[in-house]
Amino acid sequence: MKLKEIYNKDKKPLNGEKIKISFEVFPPKNGEAGFEDLFTELEILKKYNPSLVSLTYGAGGSSNDSMKLTEALCRKFNLMPHFTCVRSSKDEVARHIKEIETLGIENILALRGDIPEDKTVYKKDFKYANELVSFIREKTDLSIGVAGYPEGHIDAPDIYSDIENLKKKVDAGAQAIFTQLFYDNEKFFHYIELVRNAGITLPIIAGIMPILSIKQMTRITSMAKISIPEEIKNNLEKFKDSPEDLKSFGIDYVSRQCEGLIGNSNIAGLHFYTLNKAFTTSKILENIL
Fold first, then answer.
1. Rounded to whole angstroms, how far apart are CA atoms 28 and 39?
2. Is 41 a catalytic residue?
3. Is residue 45 part of a domain?
4. pLDDT-derived band of residue 116, with 50, 70 and 90 as boundaries?
5. 103, 230, 250, 283: least CB-packed within 10 angstroms?
6. Neighbour-count burial of 246, counting CB atoms closer than 10 A to its CB (0-12 exposed, 13-18 middle, 19+ buried)
């Protein structure tokens, strides 16, 4: 099922569902040896009837692992593979598109990707994500998702410039916006207001990540513009020597965060960054559904 069908705002909820749920996973770092563990975790989450499962491209493993995992997952779920463009030529992108279309996949998440430090792997055919979106739209009938950044992309000078870039992706043919994770709903609601004021009407799916550890929180805030509310900061300090208590706090906090999002007419779904583990995401979903 394509993105525009999944997130059709006029479509009535099924089986009493409150909101569309989706999950993100990545290829295990140990390659095929880790596939079965990932399948086990996803089997636990399957009971929440995900509208789709997204698969990052080459994260932690090789692009070959990503393709093998794509083939396996698309038989079990409505799969949305990611594709980044700054390391790929037009010919490579066209070949990848053909591969996933052959598998019957209907959706793709089009991203710029991180600029590589090694400039020898930086291909010059694409510089920005909107160029990739336009290329996919011209070559295929795939439904295209793009990324949104509630506090602005780390490379953008400000949120307004970032929304201008989002508008370019939308004008190029995007059909849904999946946001970066965030922990401050008020900043997210302000972002939605700015997006709508820019004339963008596409479905916005909120990116949600469980709180697992101090190390995790330190890493994500060093890589992206993500504000950490005082309540989280205080509890990271409070439970710095008690990982299980921190995990319990994280489940409670993110559950409350999700409850604050459900019912907002501008939010089409919740997209959980599972980190390839089912437990915490499952506990949050038990609390909110």
1. 11
2. no
3. yes
4. low
5. 230
6. buried
